[in-house]
Amino acid sequence: MTDKRIVIAGGHGQIAQHLTQVLTAHGDRAVSLIRNGDHVDAVTALGALPQVIDLESASVDELAAVLDGADGVVFAAGAGPNSGPERKDTVDRAGAVLLADAAEKAGVRRYVLISSFGAGEPVAEDLDDGWKAYINAKTAAEENVSARSGLDWTILRPGKLTDEDPTHSVSLTEPPLELGEVTRADVAAVIAQLLDTGGAVHKTLMLTSGSTSIVDAVDALG
């Protein structure tokens, strides 16, 4: 049993819900940051402690107060596929930056940022505007977080997300990695392992399904 307190921004998201279940099963305490009060019961049922806070309007001080005493934070929030470019910036970029600011203020060093394949690379001109805005927001978030010496950050870029059952086997490596699929449950399990070991600090990681157990894949990164 462990007893880490992990704060998850975007706590009602699908990866976040998987992560809450994994953390709870390990004896950790997941604190779910949710914007919509209607989601309190859902995250509570998974074992999380809900905290209703809007990353688009909260101040650094307000969020830092929620993070006080945490052992790590995970940015799992997102504006969603039906949102416009403006909200992709205010959530996927600015929300990640706000969480990093608040973590530093609260003295929480461990920060895992869920990003995406394509971030940190030139965006093809033939992609739709929504995807361009998303990738640009993720790239900007990565650049901000990775420049911070006050955080033990890890950036995780999953491939195409699926809702299949977990495989417990992945390819996890620093770039480059060929694009592939990965289950949301496996993404959550990788994050939980990163948090448990404290490994892969100051590394950007690509993640797809693969043939290496999650434990071994994370251990190999140091």
Structure at a glance:
Helices cover 39% and strands 23% of the residues.
Plain-language structure description:
- It is built from 7 helices and 11 strands.
- The chain has helices at about 15-25, 40-45, 60-65, 85-105, 130-145, 185-195, 215-220; strands at about 5-10, 30-35, 50, 70-75, 110-115, 150-160, 160, 170-175, 180-185, 205-210, 210-215.
- A 9-stranded mixed sheet has the order 3-2-1-4-5-6-10-8-11, sandwiched between helices.
- The protein is globular, with a radius of gyration of 16 Å.
- The model has no long low-confidence stretch (mean pLDDT about 95).
Give the overall form: globular
- Which percent range fits the helix content? 25-40%
**SSE string, helix = H, strand = E?**
EHEHEHEHEHEEEEHEEH
Low-confidence blocks of residues: none
Mean of residue pLDDT values: 96
Tell me the strand percentage band. 15-25%
Give the helix tally: 7
Strand order of the largest sheet: 3-2-1-4-5-6-10-8-11
Cα end-to-end separation: 22 Å
